[in-house]
Amino acid sequence: MDFYLIRHLTKFLYADLVSESLMEARMHPRSDNNQRCLSFSLSVSPRCRVFSYRDHMGNNVHHFDIPGEHSQLVIIAEALVEQQPLGEIPQSLGPAAWNELDALIALGDFSEMLLPSEFAKPSPALLDLAQRLDVRRRDDPLVLLHQLNASLYDWFEYDPRSTHVNSPIDEALESRKGVCQDFAHTMIALVRHVGIPCRYVSGYLYHGEDNKDRSTEDATHAWVEAFLPHVGWVGFDPTNNLLAHNRYIRTALGRDYADVPPTRGTYRGSKDSELYVAVKVAKYMDLPPLDRDMPVPEDWSILVERAQEPPTPPAHLLHLQQMQQQQQQQ
Predict the structure, then answer these.
(1) Which of 22, 46, 216, 302 has its CA 20 to 30 A from that of 209?
(2) Strands 50-54 and 60-66
(3) CA–CA dist 188, 257 (Å, integer)
(4) What residue segments make up the domains of the chain, in order of their start?
(5) Distance between CA atoms of 216 and 204, rounded to whole angstroms?
């Protein structure tokens, strides 16, 4: 088994004092399948009372209200997660798998993950890509998904500056550039197009020294899960052309990004704001559960310490995005 420490800082800076902030956060890793969240804490400045609930997908949601005047809002989430090894996923299921899949869909409730959603819906550009990549009911569902995962990796260039949080997939399709959010939405729309249930996964990816991931390590990550006969929900990461394994830490599931942004909210006051985000995922071998005194990388310690201070944190440690109360996954 592997243990991961996740630390996720979000900082909103407002041009003028704001009088109230309402916010919800989906940063608490899930405990299901091979993953178990051993501990989680959410710190908010200015201080306030934080409430929590689980949504209909079983995602952990925290929400709070800051009624007083403030010029910045800092959220620091910390989690310790245990990951068990995943079983091997075969390369194929056999030609009968399409009929078996349809039979399972008829017996279950998969409508949310089969119908178009806000960011994952058909368009002329998407249907053209489906034709180019030969996305149709052929071979068996798992063979098709393996090939599509690799094809999208080759089709798109990974470029963190190419799209923004609310970009429709047509922007990425036109430029052939995007971030993990665009890769995931495109794959979801294509997979649903052939009648395979598919959902969006928001979370974190541990980047080890020996791993050649092209997604950035200082941000949240997104990938997809498709439902298949015999194997259930299987994770695919078209950004990195990988199957989701135990380096992938699942935080929230939804139809697409609109269901599971790490933060979402509103405030009263100046419309001008800046958003700073920093993510650190560290691996600890044989870590005792709930060890609150574990060492952390020096750069993260500096980052958390300065998060409470008025000066802007160092640019090389923080990822700056200008958007309103949401974070783009990369």
Answers:
(1) 302
(2) antiparallel
(3) 11
(4) 2-83+261-321, 97-259
(5) 11
